[in-house]
Amino acid sequence: MLELITAGGWLMVPLLLSSVVVLAICSERLFTLNERKISPPHLLASVWKQLKASELDTAKLRTLKQSSPLGRILAAGLGNASQGRDVMKESIQEAASHVVHDLERYLNTLGTIAAVAPLLGLLGTVMGMIKVFAEIMAQGTGNASVLAGGISEALITTAVGLSVAIPALVMHRYFVGRIDAIVVGLEQETIKLVDAMHGENLDDVRHAQSADSSSASMSGLVS
């Protein structure tokens, strides 16, 4: 491995650092973008039950806000529910924008590495070929080992650059799609809350409540 790094030249250093950053970002995002943690099942039904029982006080709103990203959005809407539908929706949109920003954390870095890594490899290729032609001009074509070294440097950096860029690009696309799906789910839950708070389309919330109750009943039977 050390010989490979040495043969690739100094451009191997940023390429290897980029590979470490890609691995770190992918590991962190895979752990963070857990849909069940971001949008816990039956959270909306639980909040609605507390609202109907007049149990949702300031302390519980604070707990809801800290519980999950969905809870943060719901708490923002509930905190301004008395101000009217429009104000409630604006509060939800503002909280949702912060949540989406957190979900997209590090994706710009991942996309930048996916774009830059092949260029670093190409730069290594160009520098390696310049070295080859410089040696040809200085010594002719008789010194095969020097020529092979320059060509090797060019090929190694290109290969490493592509090896870093391809997984980075694939994971970037994967995370973007995953975030889009999570955001759609968050939007659906918050729309149910807004409609329920203003006396519209309560069926979705009631259905979620009944599903939650059924699940609890089944758990009791199993136990």
Describe what is shown at a glance:
Helix content is 85%, strand content 0%.
Biggest pleated sheet: none
Q: How many whole angstroms does the radius of gyration measure? A: 27 Å
* Secondary structure: helix percent: over 70%
The total number of structural domains is 1
Give the averaged pLDDT, no decimals.
80
Please describe the topology of this protein.
Blueprint: H1 2-8, H2 12-32, H3 35-38, H4 43-52, H5 58-67, H6 69-79, H7 85-103, H8 107-139, H9 144-197, H10 203-222
Helix pairs in contact: 2-8, 2-9, 4-10, 5-6, 6-7, 6-9, 7-9, 8-9
Tag the structure with descriptive keywords.
single chain; 223 residues; mainly alpha; 10 helices; 85% helix; rod-shaped; disordered C terminus
Outline the structure in words:
With 223 residues, the protein is mostly helical. It has one domain. It has ten helices and no strands. It has helices at residues 2-8, 12-32, 35-38, 43-52, 58-67, 69-79, 85-103, 107-139, 144-197, 203-222. It is rod-shaped and about 90 Å long. The relative contact order is 0.15.
